[in-house]
Specification:
This protein has 283 residues and is α/β, with parallel strands linked by helices. It is 54% helix and 13% strand. The chain contains 14 helices and eight strands.
Length: 283
Amino acid sequence: MRIVFVLGFVFALMLQASSSVWKVSKGTHTLYIGGTFHILRPSDYPLPHEYETAFNQADTLAFETDLKAMQDPMFSMKMMGALMQTQGKTLHDDLDKKTYMTLKKYVAKQNLPMSMLDSMRPQMVVITLMMAELQRLGLNTQGVDAYYNAKAIREQKQLQFFETPEEQLSFLSHMGEGQENEMILQTIEDMNQMQTLLDQMITSWRTGNLKTMEALALDSMKKDYPELFEMLVVKRNDAWMPKIETMLMDDKVGFVLVGTLHLVGKEGVLERLEAKGYKVTQL
């Protein structure tokens, strides 16, 4: 499983690519769709100007979920309950001996306390390892969705959300079930190429290079983790499409901001909209 995807909801540059923002239209109805990167480096700001163009045109902004609600202490407690071990269990119970020892050696090199990870479920271990590495590489700044969520609130634009925080938590807590050992080992392997991978991802995101994003982030997931791909990409896109089309029927202009990988490939939102007869133009 590629780190890119777990990040999320996180790419040969095409000369015609200019940004990860697209204008979708049919008749007099218009909608903008922007791919998000959920955590960035300070040097990644300012964002590509196309995001600001779409934001200024929009009356309504739609996000994957309510970011403000996810910061609520009560939700944090729910998250801990879903991603931490239940009483009497430890990480030992979820991993085989080889995987556990490989993880233990890795975290020792990273100066992370194994005792802390022992109280986590494998899904939380993966998130913790990745966030620690991202912090080490300088990704410590809010991403596109958080930036525009806060700006929309300040400017009193209408907000809507495609999923509840509880639904997003459910996706995380069931990630890689039945393949916990493979998930941990692949994450450790990917850490060794994180810098190169992130540079490619961020460059491709900024230029809207969907083909490279797909090659880097989704191809291996489709092949190696088809059930996870179906759950985290296909089914969610299925659920979002009617909501996007409803926005397109509105006279108000909307701006949809979702993880860039939901826009990629034939399963992605953009190709689905084109197949339904909408005009999709990259800004």
